[in-house]
Design brief:
- By secondary structure, the chain is an alpha+beta fold.
- 49% of the residues lie in helices and 27% in strands.
- The chain is built from 29 helices and 16 strands.
- It has a 16-stranded antiparallel barrel.
- A hairpin with a 3-residue loop joins strand 14 and strand 15.
- Helix 20 runs parallel beside helix 22.
Length: 816
């Protein structure tokens, strides 16, 4: 494509010629014919590009370039069309693979423009310098070089170049315009005024220079002189004044939108008006106009803020990124708005970097500091979050009891965030202590009531949390945060009718709120079907409990119906080898599950196949007395706990189980349970077990629990073909290590290592040590999917003989 071709429109001959040309090339015709065909296709591609059909043109030119990579004309046309299509990044990348030393001017123009558009100003400067060595009088290169120098911040070099241009072209306007442009970039309003005055000396009616002179005078504070010139050109004044007033009015409207609304229904009314004003102003502005340019940017900065306030976060980010792509650095308030939008859209790394930029310019920006705290939390950088919020807290005067909430709002805010830092790092005890202290100082502050109730919920006390939210709503009946928390406890406590009503109301009123969106998501997931599946393979060095055992089980629950009910079907299959032969057991069944505030229970019937077919019935569940005490129970005919070896030998059992569990908090729990089994061979088993779990270490990404397990059993008979000790007892201590390796909002990955050791005593065989090691991976995704898998290596004792066993397992949970 020649330089002259850029100003011409070649005749368009249709896609038929392109197809014909490509076909001729593909069938391998003589070189001359193929070359002509290539020219036809190339010419058609350029015509398509001029018509705006960039994708089709680039596809043709790309094919031609692949077929003839050494054809510089094709490569240059391809690069130029990329530039026309605005694909500046691709222009730069493609140009890196070309030798530009002999490239025509139009190619260098395209590359220089792309480098500037992608903010690679230093590279643009170097390219323009090389271009000028070949085309010293090429005006586009001269201007581009100066633009790039100025945009790169090399004002000394730009000024030196402009000085030479002005000396070389003393009667030309464009060097002065370049000079004014660079001066404006430098913020030198006096130079801007001088250059515009010089332009007006040469061209007294130059409207751009007239507007520039007025603006420069205004910026310098010479408003009277600016007014004199404006009166000489009233059309300039009226437009300039209108733009200025309109822009300022829109900015003020944005600020009004951030104030407390008259009602929640009107919370976006002022912001909507601000956005309408901004759009109206922008519609009449031209970013290329030197006078209007600053107004365009000011309006766009204000639009970023207004879109953030309107919770149109994707649009706010799009506006910010568009400014950034143009090489425009927004002021701190617009950067802060963009950071909040990124945080809302779960891009905390970008938000963090923007907040740091804001604080670099405005170290005392309190709101930016709080935003950075959240960005650190959401990037799992708890040390920096702690350090930041504690430093902010230390800078604030102490909030003394009796001074009231209004005495120091910033101190209260930073105290709340310092408490949240502990809560979000799982130090719930310290978080609760801090919020109870604040609540005692300001018991009628609904925000403090909400945070305290949030902690109760996080500690596993949904009833206490619900009551606390309700108490807060007495103080502030319309408080959205309290209403959201209260709705969450409805779901946690399985009060599904009430939960559905409250969540639907919140979502109708606050669809943009992230917490409300999460509640709606959890409700939608509650309405889904659920699959639970497990697979395990175990082997042992001895006959007990079995060798080469394989277990498969699954349960599929229906969607809820009649508020609290779900139907389910289940299946279980196991196979193992014993000295007397292989045992296989199958169980298929279904039933009904009930989930209420204080009771979760299920009734199931099953068909059991081992040595024959038997009917099984089971009624099981857990009664929750309060937030701490619960009582699991089960009655089974043809119990699922019947050993496979017993089933292999034609023996089954019925069972009854009852237990009591006490959960103080996430730090401590304990339980006691008993089970009685009545075997069909006359054997009767009684079992008692107890446990105590204590949190030993709590860190944001690591937990260590100590667990003591006690177990004892008696059997009427010990002359049965399955393991049935007359009496036995075991005591074990487990150190359960849990690491969170990855967390990205609702997606997590962790691993777990549990080390167990203790002793086992069996009547007639004495006491022996036992031990086990468990290693496990855990995955969670979007509240709908969970997967865990691992292995257990154990050393157990049966009838005095030690056996080493290994088990591999996989568990899956899925809502769909």
């Amino acid at each position: 494509m020649s330089k002259d071709d850029q100003g011409l429109n070649r005749p368009r001959r249709g896609s038929f010629l392109v197809c014909l040309a490509l076909l001729l090339m593909l069938v391998g015709l003589p070189a001359g014919v193929s070359f002509a065909a290539s020219n036809i296709a190339q010419e058609q591609a350029v015509s398509l590009a001029r018509a705006g059909e960039f994708n089709e043109a680039l596809a043709i030119l790309g094919d031609l370039h692949q077929q003839s990579p050494d054809n510089q004309a094709v490569a240059y046309d391809y690069l130029s069309v990329l530039g026309w299509a605005g694909r500046d990044g691709e222009v730069v990348t493609f140009a890196e693979g070309l030798t530009l030393d002999l490239a025509p001017a139009y190619v260098l123009e395209a590359v220089g423009k792309a480098l500037r558009n992608t903010q690679r100003f230093k590279e643009a400067t170097a390219l323009y310098g090389r271009a000028l060595a070949r085309f010293p009088a090429h005006r586009d290169f001269i201007e581009g070089h100066v633009y790039a120098l100025g945009e790169a911040g090399d004002f000394a070099a730009a000024d030196e170049r402009i000085a030479r241009l002005r000396a070389q072209y003393p009667r030309e306007l464009w060097p002065l315009r370049l000079d004014a442009y660079v001066a404006a970039l430098r913020g030198d309003d006096l130079a801007v005024l001088d250059r515009n005055q010089r332009i007006l000396t040469l061209a007294p009616e130059d409207s751009a220079a007239l507007r520039g002179r007025i603006l420069a005078l205004e910026a310098l504070g010479a408003t009277h002189r600016a007014q004199v010139y404006a009166e000489q050109h009233p059309h300039l004044l009226s437009r300039e004044e209108r733009l200025r007033l309109q822009t300022g009015s829109a900015a003020q409207q944005v600020r009004w939108g951030s104030l407390e609304p008259e009602s929640e229904e009107m919370r976006f009314a002022e912001t909507d008006r601000a956005l309408a004003l901004i759009e109206k102003n922008l519609a009449g502005l031209d970013a290329k106009d030197p006078v209007e340019r600053s107004f365009v940017f000011q309006a766009r900065f204000d639009r970023v803020v207004a879109l953030r306030d309107r919770v149109r976060m994707a649009e706010a980010i799009a506006e910010y990124e568009s400014l950034a792509d143009e090489g425009i650095s927004p002021p701190p308030y617009a950067l802060q708005a963009a950071a909040e939008a990124y945080l809302y859209l779960q891009k905390p790394e970008v938000a963090r970097d923007l907040y740091l930029r804001v604080l670099a310019e405005e170290p005392q920006n309190f709101e930016a500091g709080l935003g950075l705290f959240y960005a650190y939390i959401e990037t799992e950088d708890f040390p920096r979050a702690y350090n930041l919020i504690d430093r902010m807290q230390a800078k604030q005067p102490v909030w003394r009891q009796g001074r009231g909430v209004g005495a120091n709002r910033e101190r209260l805010d930073v105290d709340v965030f310092a408490g949240l830092a502990r809560v979000l790092a799982d130090d719930l005890t310290e978080g609760q202590r801090r919020f109870k202290t604040m609540h005692a100082t300001a018991p009628h502050n609904p925000d403090l009531v909400r945070e305290l109730a949030n902690i109760y919920g996080a500690r596993g006390w949904p009833r206490l949390a619900q009551q606390t939210y309700a108490d807060g709503l007495v103080i502030a009946p319309g408080h959205p945060g309290l209403q959201m928390g209260h709705a969450a406890t409805r779901l946690d406590l399985r009060e599904y009718d009430e939960a559905q009503s409250e969540i639907a109301d919140l979502y109708r009123r606050f669809p943009e709120n992230r917490q409300v969106q999460r509640l709606q998501l959890l409700w939608d997931i509650h309405e889904l079907r659920e699959l639970r599946a497990e697979a395990a393979y175990a082997d042992s060095s001895g006959a007990e409990p079995s060798s080469q055992e394989l277990r498969l089980s699954s349960t599929l629950f229906s969607s809820p119906f009649l508020t609290h009910y779900r139907a389910f079907i289940s299946g279980f299959w196991s196979r193992a080898d014993f000295p007397e032969g292989r045992g296989i057991y199958q169980r298929y069944g279904g039933g009904l599950e009930y989930r209420g505030r204080d009771l979760i229970a299920s009734l199931a019937a099953s068909a059991n196949h081992s040595d024959g077919s038997d009917l099984g019935l089971a009624f099981s569940g857990t009664w929750y007395r309060d937030d701490h005490w619960s009582f699991p129970f089960a009655l089974e005919m043809f119990s699922a706990d019947t050993p496979l070896r017993a089933l292999r030998n034609g023996v089954d059992a019925d069972a009854a189980r009852l237990g009591v569990d006490y959960r103080q908090s996430e730090l401590r729990s304990m339980g006691l349970g008993g089970q009685a089994m009545d075997f069909s061979d006359g054997n009767q088993t009684g079992r008692v077990s107890a446990y105590w779990r204590e949190r030993l270490v709590t860190r944001p990404h690591y937990k260590l629990d100590g667990v003591v397990d006690l177990y004892a059993s008696t059997n009427r008979r010990d002359d049965v073909p399955y393991f049935s000790p007359k009496q036995d007892f075991s005591a074990e201590l487990t150190l359960d290590n849990d690491w969170l390796l990855y967390r990205r909002y609702s997606r997590t990955f962790g691993h777990r290592l549990a080390l167990s050791g203790g002793g086992y005593w069996q009547k007639g065989f004495g006491a022996n040590p036992v031990a086990a090691i468990l290693y496990e991976h855990n995955w969670q995704a979007d509240y709908r999917f969970s997967l865990s898998y691992g292995a257990v290596l154990s050393r157990r004792v049966y009838d005095g003989d030690g056996e080493t066993g290994v088990e591999y397992y996989l568990r899956l949970g899925w809502r769909f």
